[in-house]
Structure formats: structure tokens, C-alpha cells
Amino acid sequence: MDTISRENNPSILPVVGAILGGLGLILAIVALVKLGQVKKLAATVDGLNNQVSSMAGDVSTAKDTANRANSSVSNLATQTQRGFDAVTAEIGNIRTDLNKLATAKTAAPKAKDGAVAKEGAAAGPGGDYTVKAGDYPAKIARAHGISTDALMAANPGIDPTKLKVGQKLNLPK
Fold first, then answer.
1. 3.30.870.10, 3.40.50.720, 3.10.350.10, 3.30.750.24: which CATH number matches 111-173?
2. Is residue 143 within 8 Å of residue 171, measured between CB atoms?
3. Tens-place pLDDT, residues 117-165
């Protein structure tokens, strides 16, 4: 009976084994595909790691360059400040010299009537004046004790912004 029962009752065990073997084969194929993708991804990650390492070196180089530039800027600032200090000292010396000249000018010789004789001035009120370098109407008027308006009224047709050295101006009385 054993042999007959075997022949009449087919066993599903070989079918289950074949299905499981097929599933195993499919899983192996999927695993191989995924392994290929993982290898490609690992190669990409390695490339990115190399790029990051290269960038880290570039950042370090840039940092060193920035530090050198900062040092150069600091040195330039120090040298510029020293230059400004020297110019300031020289301006102080020039001011001192100008003050000495101004003091010497106020001690100029006096005219017979006790008034200070002005260089380029007429002997008395009225007369004429010869323009010198650096002269302008207000300066000339002040030097002769007259108003700028009076000076310009005595010189019609003269452009006060275009005075020329050696030009003659009339001084009002």
C-alpha cells in the first residue's frame, strides 16, 4: 500500500522547492543589480570625498593668502599714518613760518602820517593799484581800507574773477 499511495498522492514538496529556488534566483539577480548600483554610488562618494579634500586644501591656501593680505594692509595703514603724521608736522612748520612772516609784515615801516605803508598801494586815498599774484578784490579792498563794492564801482568793466598780474586797478577816494 505504501507504493500505491505514493503513486496516487502526488507530493507538493518538489513544486514548493522549485518555487523557492526560483524566488532565490530572482532575489540573487535583484541583489546583483543593487550591488552594481551601490558600487557606482560608492565610486561617486569617493569622487566627492576627493573633491572635498581638494577644496579643504584650497580653503587652507586661501586662508593663508588672506592672512598675508591682512598683514600687508596693516603695514600699509601704519605707513600711511606715518606719512600723514609727517605731513601734519610739516604743515605745523609752515604755519609757524607763516605766523613769523605775518608778524614781520605787521612790523613794516610806517609812513610819515603814522600809517603802515602798504606794498603796491597808492600814496593816499584814490590812485591806482597794480595786481600781484594771489590778489583778489576783497583782499585788495581790505588792504586799502575800502569796501569791495567801492573798489568794484571804481573799476567798471573789470571781471573780479579774472584779475591778471600787473593789471592796474583804480582805488576810490
1. 3.10.350.10
2. no
3. 444 443 345 689 999 999 999 999 999 999 999 999 999 989 989 999 9
